[in-house]
Amino acid sequence: MKTLFDETTLRGIRLKNRVWRSATWLGLADANGFMTDAIISTYETLAEGGAAVIVTGLTSVSATDAHIGGECKFYDNRFIDGHRRLTDAVHRHGARILLQTAMVDGPVDELTTAQADDVVTIFGDAAQRAEQAGYDGVQIHAAHFFYLSKFISPLFNHRTDGYHGSGILPAILSDMRSKTSRKFCITMKINSSDEYPGGITEDDFLVTSRLMAEAGIDAIEVSANGTSRTGIRAGVNEGSFLEAAAHLAGEVEVPVVLVGGLRSVEFIGQVLNNTKVEYISLSRPLIREPNLINRWQQGDTAPSKCVSCSGCYRTEGHQCVFNIKQ
Ligand SMILES: Cc1cc2nc3c(=O)[nH]c(=O)nc-3n(C[C@H](O)[C@H](O)[C@H](O)COP(=O)(O)O)c2cc1C
Q1: pLDDT of residue 115 exceeding 90
Q2: What distances in angstroms separate CA 84 from CA 24, 91, 160, 205, 277, one per listed residue?
Q3: Is the pLDDT at 29 greater than 80, yes or no?
Q4: Which domain holds residue 78?
């Protein structure tokens, strides 16, 4: 029987419970994508609040990528010192931290094979840099129609070289492994469906995930394009992508992380005990209540107060609309 508060290990790294804070872009980096005190303080509060693993908001590994306001960049060594301050702050509270390595957008079919090789290389270099900055690992962001998610989608990828289909993902994993130590965790987040005609289906997702499991990925976080669904209610419609995640978990040995619309201890307990899903991941509930995991562990197991309005997407620093600090 699994419980939310089991201690586990991932690639030999001790995790104090089964809760991940899913990647949540804060929009608080400076104009050049450098770390700020506001970001460190937000993650420190989350680390204090009890989650075992914090995945940072999406962080661009490319100097020429499209830019979304306040997004962190990590494309050269000048970014390392700021991120070292962040990883130190999180580690002080006994949590682990993974850098979500991403690109916002870019061409797919138009790239030559050598240019696609360069994309692989910059993800690998970012992983190497992440280890130097004290991260416990990285998460390859291949979800939500950010660049890699498009790269592996039949909607955008009509290539005929080694980068057809989802070929870029094992190449990135292999490059990252070659540039990091044996204890460095490499995980990924992927769409279980593009939720778009002609895009990735659940079958495609299973094929890619199996491929990545065989290639040695350390964990797979299962999402989909309709990422932050509104109108989630505890005990009513939790676990937006449970079916796909449970299906995958039944097929691979690699730990599966379920994200999306999880709100109550009861439902999470059912997920853990009725499926082989190993970890659960929360975004908006921890925006509403950064201390939620401690609250649950201390015995107050009332569901998350998050009403899934997604108002946090529109506030400064992506705060909850119910507890905005000016
Ligand atoms: C404000 C905000 C920013 C987000 N930023 C990211 C991100 O940077 N990377 C990512 O993979 N998902 C991002 N997400 C999606 C969440 O990680 C998560 O998959 C989604 O919100 C569903 O989980 P929830 O129901 O617990 O909120 C973001 C969500 C929110 C609300």
Answers
A1: yes
A2: 19, 10, 40, 34, 31
A3: yes
A4: 13-318
Could you give the CA distance from residue 312 to residue 258 in angstroms, rounded to a whole number? 21
**Residue among 21, 24, 324 whose CB has most ligand 1 atoms within 8 A, to mutate:** 24
Residue type, 224: A
Give the CATH number of the domain where residue 263 resides.
3.20.20.70
Q: Residue 326 has what pLDDT?
A: 59
Quick check: is 279 in a domain?
Answer: yes
Helix (H) or strand (E) holding 59: strand 59-60
SS3 for 168?
A: helix
Taking the centre of ligand 1 as the mean of its atom positions, its distance from the CA of residue 24, in whole angstroms, is 5
Report which protein residue has its CA nearest ligand 1's atom 20.
228
Query: Which is the closest atom of ligand 1 to the Cα of 287?
Result: 31
Residue 167 makes CB contacts below 8 A (sequence gap 6+) with none
Q: State which ligand 1 atom lies nearest to the alpha carbon of 189.
A: 11
Kindly tell me if the per-residue pLDDT of 134 is higher than 80. Answer: yes
The total of structural domains in the chain comes to: 1
Q: Given the CA of residue 141, which atom of ligand 1 is nearest to it?
A: 11
Is 324 within the bounds of a domain? no
Mutate which of 22, 145, 284 to test ligand 1's pocket (most atoms within 8 Å of Cβ)?
22
153, part of any domain: yes
Q: Mean pLDDT across the stretch 223-246?
A: 96
Q: How many angstroms is it from 241 CA to the middle of ligand 1?
A: 14
The verdict on residue 323 lying in a domain is: no
